[in-house]
Hints:
This is Phosphonate C-P lyase system protein PhnH. The protein is α/β, with parallel strands linked by helices.
Amino acid sequence: MQTELHYDTVFDAQQHFRLLLDSMARPGKINTFPAMEIMPPVGLNQASALTGFALLNADTSYHIAGYNGADIAQYLLVNTASQQAGIDIAEYIFLPENHDGRGLEKARVGTPVYPEDSATLIAEAELISEHAIENSLGITLKGPGVNGEAQIFVSGINPALLDYLKEQNVEYPLGIDLIVTDRQNNLLCIPRSNAFTYIKTN
Length: 202
């Protein structure tokens, strides 16, 4: 497994980190990573890889849930120096498309003294859109960073994962943040501070 030669660990990482911060500060806003000449292993989309590059380093840990093979773990190790850890320890948890939330029960939700000591999910989806798309979930967000309500549509995300997120975030400020990426390099964030509902579209 080789280091990505076309990725600048300073310039690109800073640019992508700013996109992630903007998405987290403005829940429901869709941002897009610029296309890059990187080759993540099969099963990991480019946006999730770039999210990992921006957030992971030797002082952080991650967990891979629901993917097949060890290629993704090796790829993230080589390119970020971050180590994979148990789900009860990891700060970041990578999930494939349509993950149903099973196995995430031990993910960190923080403590009353240190609520920020919690996990962030990085979940892949097929497509994120501002407009209704076939076989998607219409997600409506309210709370900090949202002017009234924000609605987005996501295909390739399992409603059971969103139900799991709701359960974990019921005792805010404890809870888990969610970053969703898609095959078109889009991303959006649902912080634990925001309430949301969803409906299935046809």
